[in-house]
Amino acid sequence: MRLIKTVFELEAWFVETGRRNKTLGFVPTMGYLHEGHCSLIKAAKAQNELVVVSIFVNPTQFAPGEDFENYPSDIDRDCKLAIISGADAVFNPEVEEIYIPGSSTVIEVTGEMTKKLCGASRPMHFKGVTTVVGIFFNIVRPDKAYFGQKDAQQALIIKKMVMDLHIPVEVIVCPIVREADGLAMSSRNVYLSPEERKQASCISGALQKAAEYLENGVEDRCNVVQLVEIIESHIRRQNMASIDYVRIIDGETFDDIAVIKPGRTVLAAVAVRFGKTRLIDNRILSISWEVQKCL
Amino acid sequence: MRLIKTVFELEAWFVETGRRNKTLGFVPTMGYLHEGHCSLIKAAKAQNELVVVSIFVNPTQFAPGEDFENYPSDIDRDCKLAIISGADAVFNPEVEEIYIPGSSTVIEVTGEMTKKLCGASRPMHFKGVTTVVGIFFNIVRPDKAYFGQKDAQQALIIKKMVMDLHIPVEVIVCPIVREADGLAMSSRNVYLSPEERKQASCISGALQKAAEYLENGVEDRCNVVQLVEIIESHIRRQNMASIDYVRIIDGETFDDIAVIKPGRTVLAAVAVRFGKTRLIDNRILSISWEVQKCL
Description:
2 copies of one chain form a homodimer.
Chain A: E1 2-4, H1 7-17, E2 24-29, H2 35-47, E3 50-55, H3 75-85, E4 89-91, H4 95-98, E5 105-109, H5 118-121, H6 125-140, E6 144-148, H7 152-164, E7 170-174, H8 194-199, H9 202-215, H10 224-236, E8 241-250, E9 266-274, E10 277-285, H11 289-293
Parallel strand pairs in A: 1-4, 2-3, 2-6, 3-4, 6-7
Antiparallel strand pairs in A: 8-9, 9-10
């Protein structure tokens, strides 16, 4: 496994490995890898001849006052986890290597999709994400790129960018990986105090409650207002939890939906703060035949 | 020579021609080809094994009231000129092939570079240009792409986009091709009435005057205010000409300059309206030793 710091070294490694005639899978990360990232690397390894993992804490997707300066980092541990999971190279460039001095070009998915949910709390966030992912796609030129379903809105926006700009990369979204108590894996979980960490399992618990409620549903339960109430009330039982949003949305467009209709992907998406730590999670909801009857 | 209408057909043509192992030159145009375009195609042919010319009148770079609806078109003639000049394929997609329905992603070079000169008269223009060129680069994936020096600001902005986003394309800018009387070749010259056409040669004439003035310069002539005055007064002699801008700028940054310094590329850039027709032109200025002395 090779640790690569510059675009120049990466190009040399491409020549060395004969990547021109090989399929390449790419896993972009901000480092401090966890089992969620590892699952992406393993998926990439299973589907490609070469796997590149990038570790780059992207300044343009953080607002002032967010955790850019303190984002957790452990490059040695990351390299070990990347190797174990099947990476052939870790690309860990400096900021100036990606954003050359005076850089001023942005890639932006405009419209409602980037303004709601996390886009409402973090207005410049997705423009930073699409710009840096677009840059990495140009540098790495992968056949397939892997993203986690935990960042569902990010994955949707990247898919839209790729489609709109005809970027020759297949975007693959892998399932959320969870801790034993259900908490979605995130590099930011390390910020939580022991008590916050304990309470944070309420998020996945609330999504589980909503799923069960729908699965055992009766006719009057297809209204999303009730679903949101189930999720919110479960989270509110934890005194350290502060809800940013709870939304029941169309999985293709992220538009709010009033009634759950069969045959469409429906997502329950949640953001909750514990102190300064903002956690997100989501769950695809399926509806039983009993519920569908009432539509 | 192949006329290709869809991305799917283009991909098939790539397979057929074995382009994976060939160098590819790309000449993006809005059609209605003239000798300026032909010079780009010839340059591409000289430097690449395959040459693709695109003909696409890009709606997003026109403002309401501009000439999108009436932009001149003659695809049969264009194909003939493209063949003669050395094109292997002409890619002439419909708008919906490039901008898929619901498309909302933009590529934008932000900052002063896109706001001055033509960006001041046409505020959304360059965002449309960078977006469509970025899309075509993703579809065609050329090794080299060819642009004309007549659209100097466009060429500079595309170079900046390519550099900032690490797009793996070499941008090559070819010299302006002129009519016998000096008028820079442009598809829009066809809009001019016979009298306007006659008067329009004043633009290149004015740039020529400025160049001669500097070449024969004396110490007090290095001030750009004088240069601008020379150009403007020459154009104003034509009663149908209305000046949009005359600027003496740094050729690397397009910043206004007060004094011409040796060792830097200096550009005289001009936009002039004749009736509804807006023409642009520019000239790289060199300075004699006598002038340099006064700096």
